[in-house]
Specification:
Layout: H1 5-26, H2 30-44, H3 50-54, H4 58-75, H5 79-84, H6 87-93, H7 95-112, H8 116-125, H9 131-141, H10 145-178, H11 182-212, H12 221-239, H13 244-256, H14 263-287, H15 291-296, H16 298-320, H17 328-336, H18 342-358, H19 366-391, E1 401-405, H20 409-420, E2 425-429, H21 432-440, E3 445-447, H22 453-458, E4 464-469, H23 474-488, E5 493-495, H24 505-508, E6 517-518, H25 526-534, E7 538-543, H26 550-553, E8 562-568, E9 574-576, E10 590-595, H27 598-605
Parallel strand pairs: 1-2, 1-4, 2-3, 4-5, 5-6
Antiparallel strand pairs: 7-10, 8-9, 8-10
Helix pairs in contact: 1-2, 1-14, 2-14, 4-10, 4-12, 4-13, 4-14, 4-18, 6-7, 6-10, 6-16, 7-8, 7-16, 8-10, 9-10, 9-19, 10-11, 10-17, 10-18, 11-12, 11-13, 12-13, 14-18, 16-17, 16-19, 18-19
């Protein structure tokens, strides 16, 4: 069936959107569904032929997309992070990576009959995990904090390091393939290395200088950096072939470690661009796949995958955790989780095309074998990691609790009422006096801001899946809400109503697009709640029944008024009362409410 190019390109966008949505819904890495979608529209249904659609522009598009991927990965690698990391993570991304590389190289050579240099390259490509596949798995598996921290940092750091290893291995392989003289091959490799480093460093210095001195307006920042990445890659390749990937990697490293460079703004734009490019890239790569080649790998590909799972990874973790404080259950779970992702797929596709041009034996099997490793690892570990974590008792409880901003009297009272009902809570505050009082009440605490870099690395959020902003300052509550939306989702972030500002309230209120869900009843802001507590109001839990329903609880049959705060269903899941979604608890539910004292009740009703 033949379609117009416009329709095909639009279809790629729709298929990519559907794959991303399914991945989000199932909390699985999007790369899996993108690759499966590409196989479906390409070799299975023959709706998409990338070579026919793009012609000679296909290879440049793939090359530039991979350049963006490598730049993005290296842009996240700050050298001070490596120095400050614990020994386990340092070993995982250094010696442990070399162990995986070596085991995979030997296995691929003997099982797949790859030449040593091609096996060496495949080992470098597949030695890395990545944050794009690790992050969704961590949300699903929810391992204990030590394992989660190790996996997260391994994924972040090993992405650019592994990409650099793969680029260097490819350049060395090309140098050896263009000449069989080791001395000349070393010379060619050295020139390639020097060209890439020089081009990347020069571009990095010029770019960082322009950004630090504000030569570019904010409106042109992201566009300019993207153009510089493309130019650095192309110019470096023009000076010396195959040096462009190394050049953009060095460029990213330079910007990431140069003080005063607004890396955060660049990364924010990168995430949107990368999602767009990567979605299209992986659908195109999978659509070019030859199913006969994929099927021809047979049991040998499964054996390679099994050895990577149950030999290379355990050896890596055994080396990396030797002498550490990790328990054996945590080490076992760390050894179980190691999916491959974006860097492996993108880099292998680019290298496979280049190596076939060189006539390297088995080069056509490089991409199919990499796809098998990616799809197999993601599917297997997505299905088994959570049960294994539970079996090993190394999984965090379900995220039903609340991370609470503030340790003030209102926050402490609400947190204690929730904790008494078995709901996990943790209070965050920079006021040591208030936090000390919370600790004396037996409440879990964190001293500091929940949106600080230290909190990102050290705040224990096990069992916490929602955010309550209960601070005394409205502007701080709004800041936390804006930052918390990205991590918890806009429907899981709650804040108190703003203080009564009269006619000026609209001028000081956050735009509804960024505002969290407003807690409790109208007017029940921090100062109102604090005043009521000072006057003797109490937060109590009441179980509803057929004889005492919610209407009676709210005032029809009770001697004193009550403001409902939370409702717990029979399973103990707590739902806050909010102004956007009224709750109607039924018999068997428990309601936590603010009960007014008699004097206040008389004033309220009078």
């Amino acid at each position: 069936m033949t379609f117009s190019p416009e329709l095909v390109i639009a279809g790629i966008g729709l298929v990519a959107m559907a794959a991303q949505w399914i991945a989000w819904k199932l909390r699985m890495p999007a790369i899996l569904f993108l690759l499966l979608a590409g196989l479906a529209v390409g070799p299975l249904e023959h709706w998409l032929d990338p070579d026919d659609l793009f012609g000679e522009l296909l290879f440049p598009f793939i090359s530039l997309s991979v350049a963006v991927i490598l730049f993005e990965g290296s842009l996240t690698l700050e050298f001070h992070q490596i120095r400050e990391l614990k020994q386990v993570v340092r070993r995982l991304v250094t010696g442990g990576t070399l162990i995986t590389w070596g085991v995979t190289t030997v296995t691929t050579h003997w099982v797949m009959d790859f030449p040593w240099d091609l096996a060496f390259l495949f080992g470098a490509i597949t030695a890395v995990t990545g944050p794009t596949v690790i992050a969704p798995l961590l949300k699903t598996v929810r391992p204990v904090a030590p394992v989660a921290h190790a996996l997260r940092w391994e994924g972040i750091l090993i992405d650019p390091i592994g990409a650099l290893f793969a680029v260097l291995a490819f350049q060395l392989m090309v140098a050896l393939r263009t000449t069989h003289d080791w001395s000349h091959a070393t010379w060619v490799f050295g020139i390639t290395l020097l060209t890439g480093c020089a081009a990347g460093a020069t571009s990095g210095w010029l770019t960082s200088t322009a950004l630090r001195r504000n030569w570019l307006p904010d409106s042109l920042l992201n566009l300019s950096v993207l153009a510089i990445v493309f130019a650095t890659f192309s110019v470096s390749n023009a000076i010396h072939g195959e040096s462009g990937l190394l050049a953009v990697t060095i460029l990213g490293l330079w910007l990431a470690n140069r003080p005063g460079v607004p890396v955060g703004d660049i990364l924010e734009f990168k995430e949107t661009l990368s999602q767009l490019l990567l979605s299209a890239l992986f659908i195109l790569l999978a659509a070019r796949m030859d199913l006969d080649l994929l099927g021809a790998l047979g049991w040998k590909a499964g054996l390679v995958l099994a050895i990577m799972f149950w030999v290379a990874r355990p050896l890596k973790v055994l080396f990396s955790t030797w002498g550490s404080s990790l328990k054996w259950r945590e080490r076992a779970l760390l050894a179980w989780i190691s999916p491959r992702g974006i860097v492996a797929a993108a880099v292998s596709a680019l290298f496979a095309i280049r190596l076939q041009d060189f006539g390297v034996p088995h080069a056509e099997q490089l991409l199919p074998l990499t796809f098998v490793v990616i799809i197999g690892s993601v599917i297997w570990q997505s299905l088994t990691a959570r049960p294994v974590a539970k079996l090993l008792r190394a999984a965090e409880p379900d995220p039903v609790g609340f991370l609470i901003l503030g340790a003030n009297p209102v926050a402490r009272t609400i947190a204690q009422a929730l904790q008494e009902q078995g709901v996990p809570v943790r209070l965050c505050d920079s006021d040591w006096y208030s936090l000390a009082k919370a600790r004396m009440q037996g409440l879990p605490t964190y001293y500091g801001s929940p949106v600080s870099e230290h909190a990102h690395l050290n705040l224990d959020t096990g069992g916490l899946g929602r955010l309550l902003a209960l601070g005394a300052r409205d502007h701080l509550n709004q800041l936390i809400v804006v930052r918390g939306r990205d991590e918890y989702g806009k429907h899981r972030v709650f804040s108190l109503p703003r203080s009564d500002l009269g006619d000026a309230a609209e001028k000081h209120s956050l735009d509804p697009e960024y505002r969290g869900r407003t807690l409790f009843g109208s007017g029940l802001g921090y100062w109102k709640l604090s005043t009521l507590l000072l006057e003797g109001a109490q937060v109590k839990a009441t179980r509803l029944s057929e004889a005492f329903d919610f209407d009676q609880y709210c005032g029809q049959g009770t001697p004193r008024p009550v403001f409902p705060l939370f409702a717990l269903n029979p399973k103990g899941y707590a739902l806050p009362f909010t102004q956007d979604q009224p709750l109607r608890p039924e018999a068997g539910w428990t309601v936590i409410g603010l009960h007014l004292p008699a004097a206040t009740e008389a004033e309220t009703t009078g």
